[in-house]
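Problem: given the chain below (661 residues), write out its structure.
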Amino acid sequence: MRDHAAAVDQRDVVVWQPEPHHLERSRLLHLCRTTGNDTPNELRAWAASDVGRYWDNVVRDLDLHWHRPYKAPLDLSRGKPWPEWFVGGGFNYATNALDRHADGPHAAEEALVWEDEDGHSRSFTWRELREEVDRLSHGLVALGVAPGDRVGIFLPMIPETVIAVLACGKIGAVFIPLFSGFGEDAVASRLNDCNAVALITADAFPRRGKQIPLKAIADAALRRAPSVKTCIVYKRTGTDVSWNRNRDHWWNDVVTGHDARFDTLPTAANDPYMVIYTSGTTGRPKGTVHVHAGFPIKAAHDLAYCFDLHPDDRLFWLTDLGWMMGPWMIAGALMLGSTLVIYEGTPDYPAPDRLWQLVEDHRVTVLGIAPTAVRALRSHGPDPVRQHDLSSLRVLGSTGEPWDSEAWRWLYREVGGERCPIINYSGGTETGGGILGCTTAEPVRECGFSGPVPGMDADIVDDNGQPLRGAVGELVVRQPWVGMTRGFWNDPERYLDTYWSRFPDTWVHGDWTEIDNDGFWHIRGRSDDVLKVAGKRIGPAEVESAACAHPAVQESAAIGVPHDLKGETLHLFVVVRPGIQVDESLLQDIRQTVGQHLGGSMRPERVHLISELPKTRNGKVMRRLIRAAYLGLPAGDATALENPHIIDEIASHARKNDRGE
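Solution.
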């Protein structure tokens, strides 16, 4: 078993330092120089002192195109929850993400590359991509889709997904990203909530060698979504599907015969371009509203200044359109003129080296992956990684879940060769991007963040809203920023209650965070997941990281269970590595490992072995569903859960516990 002191010492050292070539090409340092700041921390303080001035400089630095100049960068007359950015400006993000590149000197270079699990690949130059987008734009208009109409996009990660997103932007429609793993209930509820008029889907798509009947799921959902009058179906597999002649149209029929040029609609800066839903613990999902000069600019900003993305880069992020990282990478990468690589498949099928083969074949330079996916890939050992040339990689990115040390080190060593910084990045659907992040111009500490993403006036506060250092507290943002949601669709009060009701004029994000003695920030888990054991509050991520230090543990999830005497005890649900023999002594050894790392009072009351953790397809562990299943509580919204069968397995542990087994 690893020595606890040695583990702590390693976490306290700076693992990666930028070298001269990182600093020379840094877009962040260029922004520092143009704004008269010497360091990123000076820039952060300068930005917080006048956020309007900061974002005014950003859009100039990114050389964004405005078809009508804005009169002022920011108007706060309605208060901080309702900022008006780029007042009076005319901005369409598709002009910036597509048109200006297709009309520029790089029109013949690759804009989009796609590959599926079986290795089939397609690519598009900027000019070719625009032709496809413009034909679909004409087709949508011909079918009666008008500016402001909501259009659901229920597709896997194929080129047509990117084309559909951009076409909606071009015609001024508002797209609704729908997770390709959703069932009919989740699709219907979102289409109904925003009164969508159209849905774009496919006949089916392959996943791990099986066919996912997307059109059949869409048909079932549309029977309960009467506002949808048009359904466009892309023939992905050729699978037979049912057909409604009054509603359904094949993609090829919609685009055939139309001109390859469409004049992009001159939308206003604050016109909605996307409503993306995020699941709540109770009640219906929240439809976060994002605008043309909001979320896309925030995505481009964060990719430029945190990940140092340039036009000669090739960005690949393992994601689905239904997770915010899908729209984020489409908007951000293309607005910066970079090549976007998308993958329709899982990272370890048909073989454990599938993801690394893709990186090698397409010379990916910036790779984004969630910690939970890294933990799964790590279980196959280093050989699948070492079979491939990953020298093209320059930057590794991660978001979605807090890290554990073992997985972070494995990614840094085996995938990045101890030369690529891991840009830890955390924000949310409602924020349009990151609140905290690393950069390529600053040192990187294991599992941590360099600090707030520039332009984010973030802080950590106690229960009274006062700044807190040396302890875990609530992550808040004190000033508005470009990219924050314009509220929830048709539910402004829920938006105010969720983020602005706890402290005056302060966004409370819901992350449990602390700053270490050297100024690095660390997220300890969601504050609604916080555990209070032996009178001490602790984030589940700390417990899970300690558990993963045990060589048998692949991944874990910690929850608090009410206790008559102690108030709350810690229960740990673990997934062990393949081939590990499980017995009671192993479970006790895992308990002892956690206690050795965090102290005896934090030793779990019980360790439960389960076959997998409940997750979304994008890898987020749904701890609240573990707790609900174990305690027999209402589950709330579970539509994003990819593996619902695991809930019964978790509940069975509660029954065993009741029987004293």
